[in-house]
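Give me structure tokens for this 104-residue protein.
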Amino acid sequence: MDYKGQKLAELLYTYLIVIFGVIAWIFGYFKQSFKVTFQGWLAGLIFCMVLCVPDWPIYNRNPVEWLTEIPPPKPKPAKSTGEEDKAVEKDKAVEKKKTKNRKR
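Here you go.
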């Protein structure tokens, strides 16, 4: 179901429930029976559900054009530089000094 189809289904459902409710209330008022009112409203509810819940072709008239998939970037191979190795060794040396100072 496309976006315009969703809007159409919602509008149909809203208006039909109100129309069936008003007609059912009028019949129930003249019959002096809440049961008639409820049955009329229930019939309208079932009719609206059959009309609006399934994905009928009338709700698919404006299909959404999706974008094509963008391929993920290829990972670059990691190049080992001397600077990275030196930075790691420096961090390890700093950690050793901290642990020695904590023991004292």
